[in-house]
Design goal:
With 750 residues, the protein is an alpha+beta fold. Among the domains are: 269 residues, Kinesin motor domain (Kinesin), CATH 3.40.850; 77 residues, no CATH class; 137 residues, Helix Hairpins (Orthogonal Bundle). The protein is built from 26 helices and 23 strands. The strands form 7 sheets. Strands 2, 6, 7, 8, 9, 12, 15, 16, 17 and 19 form a 10-stranded mixed beta sheet that branches. A hairpin with a 5-residue loop joins strand 3 and strand 4. Helix 4 packs antiparallel against helix 5, helix 12 packs across helix 13 and helix 22 runs antiparallel to helix 23. The termini are far apart. The C terminus is likely disordered.
Length: 750
């Protein structure tokens, strides 16, 4: 069940101090805003555009508040929702010595100074004591991240073998968990607090210039809550967890002057907090597709807490002294960015597999009882609904054979399992008959695969199958072709619709593909009788000899068979594209479509390159403005002298880098597309020229050149002077186009 979207709540807690800078830090009347004012530095001259005032709007400002009021404001509602199935996270962020650990854990000297963790544990177990319908179990874990190393603070409470497991952050469909982290069941508040105190003693702390007991690591105290309804019929299990995070404090090394181990720890802390801030910026950007959670162990562990489906609350701890105003501004900026993040809390409900099985078994039993009651009411007491026995299967098989032989008109069906068995038996019988038919066909015929084009072409050449892969009858193979009618109308019909006429005649003389497929064992095969191969070859040789022996017809008779007037070239061209030139026309269309697609893609890529170039120019101008502003305000460097830039400039640099990479990839793609377009254009031109030249030859041979002239123009023909009158050549429209062809063949003949 999804809840409405929620914004991350952010609060500011100000550390009490005797030197509170009232002229620098001011609170709003509603205790939800805080303003920072800094006086201008007179040393930088009259022209000084550096910002001197800031205003931050948050969910609450906690100044001079007790631990109890802090818990009521920050954590009580989140813990209550965790008891109903929502995950929750409370995080304390701020500079070293700002009171993060005090807010999260509290002080052990007095009971009223308890922090968020002890009070959350108390609230959870109070709710368990008041719960009547649910059975709730609680478990505890305590994780430390020290110098990018995962440490189990409760490893001393387990056996030695469990502490030797290598810890790692693992992603799974249910979320992120730490492999090797020990999780301890607790039965009461006292057991949970004992684990908390045990973990606190194992934390890494060190003396610092800002804090005598400074935490040098990030710590995550997690409370796991599992709730089950006491009713046995309810198999739901509600799981939730509360992450209570005490982050290590950030610091400016130039101020603190840390050395040695403390300096190394500070470097790790600052780097992980910097990565955390980058994650916050990325999550706040709705256009950002990838969130780099794996940059550090801290951000990876907090993946579900920050970008997941849970309630998240941030407490930014700040110092009220003017000396730390820069760190205060940094913490307030971080809190403001956290408020940009939107989460979608959901109730985590799972179902017990064992309970599900029991429930389904019970439902099946009730349904069987209901069926038995229904059968008894309609006098069907002998019906069973279990799996069929061998005897029942044999009886169904016998009834099917009797039904196919016509001995019975119906098959007795009493339940759905019998229906399934009847279909299965019919399927077996059909497969058996298909095998028998295929065996008989293979004994009499040669089976050719329809995808074997070479064999099919040979069969077409022998006249065994037609152009549509239809099998010819034996009498059509053995008889001579019928002579062409001398009627001019029939001759014109032959030239115009020869393929259609062939198909119409085939309905009388040939087996159609559908008729033949009904007798074939496979749709991908063509059946050719073995005897037809020899008969067709013999008939073809006889027909060739008879045709050679027949005298050629007079020219006048052939001219009389021509149409009175040839069709227009446009009509003839369309006919040519559908018949003789269909293959060339198909290839021409395919190449042309590929060419158009490549041109369209090239245009798109070119437009994208221009957009990228414009974006790069804009970013370069923005970076230049940022550099000028930084040079005017003063530059920050770390302990190694490296320049420190703000997040806005960093994002611009990263975006410029991504745009440059995208520009290189797009430019390379554009070059490849240009080469492909040039090649495709060449293919299209060749296909167009080929199509036109083949049409000219076909048009002249079909409608302009006499048949005896065509035979004479063949390489084996007998052409001689005077065979083609010059007046006949010049009067034939379009004859000049084939004149070169005639001359070429004439010289080849001699």
């Amino acid at each position: 069940m999804h809840a409405a979207e929620k914004k991350v709540r952010a609060f500011v807690r100000v550390k009490p101090t005797a030197h509170f800078a009232q002229d620098v830090i001011k609170f709003g009347p509603d205790n939800k805003s805080i303003d920072i004012y800094i006086k201008k530095d007179a040393k930088k001259g009259v022209v000084n555009n550096k910002q001197t005032d800031w205003s931050f709007k948050l969910d609450g400002v906690l100044h001079n508040t007790s631990q109890e009021l802090t818990y009521e404001t920050v954590a009580k509602k989140l813990v209550s929702e965790a008891l109903t199935g929502y995950n929750g996270t409370i995080m304390c962020y701020g500079q070293t010595g700002a009171g993060k650990t005090y807010t999260m854990t509290g002080a052990t000297a007095e009971y009223k100074h308890r922090g968020i963790i002890p009070r959350a544990v108390q609230q959870v177990f109070k709710a368990i004591a008041c719960s009547v319908d649910s059975f709730i179990t609680v478990r505890i874990s305590y994780l430390e991240i020290y110098n990018e190393t995962l440490c189990d603070l409760l490893s001393t409470m387990t056996s030695s073998g469990a502490s030797d497991v290598q810890m790692a952050v693992v992603d799974c469909p249910q979320g992120v968990y730490v492999k090797g982290l020990s999780i301890h069941s607790v039965s009461g508040e006292e057991d949970a607090l004992n684990l908390l105190f045990e973990g606190e003693t194992n934390r890494v702390i060190a003396e610092h210039s800002l804090n005598k007991n400074s935490s040098r690591s990030h710590c995550i105290f997690t409370i796991y809550i599992e709730s089950r309804v006491r009713v046995l019929s309810d198999i739901r299990c509600i799981n939730s967890k509360i992450n209570l995070i005490d982050l290590a404090g950030s610091e400016r090394l130039s101020k603190t002057g840390s050395e040695g181990r403390v300096l190394k720890e500070a470097a790790y802390i600052n780097r992980s907090l910097s990565f955390l801030e980058q994650i916050i910026i990325a999550l706040a950007d709705p256009k950002r597709e990838h969130i780099p959670f794996r940059q550090s162990k801290l951000t990876h562990v907090l993946k579900d807490s920050l970008g997941g489906k849970c309630n998240t609350v941030l407490v930014a701890n700040i110092c009220g002294e003017a000396l730390h105003v820069e760190e205060t501004l940094s913490s307030l900026r971080f809190a403001t960015r956290m408020k940009w993040i939107t989460t979608e809390p959901v109730v985590n409900v799972t179902y017990d597999s064992e309970g599900t099985v029991k429930t389904l078994e019970k439902e099946i039993s009730l349904l069987k009882q209901e069926l038995a009651m229904h059968d008894s009411l309609v006098n069907r007491s002998l019906v069973t609904y279990g799996p069929l026995t061998d005897v029942q299967v044999a009886e169904i098989k016998s009834q099917i054979h009797e039904y196919l032989q016509g001995n019975i008109d119906e098959i007795d069906i009493t339940n759905f399992r019998q229906v399934q068995e009847v279909f299965r038996q019919f399927k077996l019988i059909v497969r058996q008959q298909e095998g028998e038919v295929e065996t008989r066909l293979r004994s009499k015929y040669v089976l050719i695969d329809k995808n074997d084009f070479a064999t099919i072409a040979a069969a077409q050449k022998l006249g065994i199958v037609d152009v549509d892969h239809h099998l010819l009858k034996r009498q059509d193979v053995e008889t001579k072709p019928t002579p062409v009618s001398p009627n001019p109308d029939e001759k014109k019909k032959k030239f115009g619709t020869s393929s259609e006429q062939f198909k119409k005649e085939g309905t009388k003389n040939f087996f159609s593909g559908k008729d033949l497929a009904a007798h074939l064992p496979s749709k991908s095969q063509v059946i050719i009788p073995n005897k037809n191969l020899d008969v067709k070859e013999k008939a073809r040789n006889e027909d060739t000899a008879k045709n050679d022996a027949q005298p050629s017809k007079p020219v006048s008779e052939e001219i009389s068979q021509r149409p009175s007037s040839p069709p227009s070239r446009a009509v003839a061209f369309e006919q040519f594209k559908e018949e003789c030139g269909s293959e060339i026309n198909r290839i021409f269309k395919e190449n042309k479509s590929i060419l158009l697609a490549r041109r369209k893609r090239s245009s798109t890529v070119a437009r994208r390159i221009n957009i990228i170039k414009q974006e790069m120019e804009d970013i370069k101008k923005a970076l230049e403005a940022q550099r000028q502003e930084r040079s005017q305000q003063g530059e920050y460097v770390d302990e190694k002298g490296r320049l420190i830039i703000d997040e806005k400039e960093f994002l611009l640099i990263m975006k410029l880098k991504d745009l440059k990479e995208e520009y290189r990839c797009s430019y390379a793609e554009l070059q490849d597309l240009k080469a492909e377009i040039q090649y495709c254009q060449h293919l299209v031109d060749r296909c167009r020229n080929k199509l036109i030249s083949e049409f000219e030859i076909w048009y002249s041979e079909s409608f302009l050149i006499p048949t005896h002239v065509q035979n004479a123009l063949k390489p084996s023909g007998n052409i001689r002077p005077g065979m083609i009158p010059i007046n006949r050549v010049m009067c034939l429209k379009g004859m000049q186009r084939v004149l070169k062809l005639i001359i070429d063949r004439f010289f080849l003949s001699y």
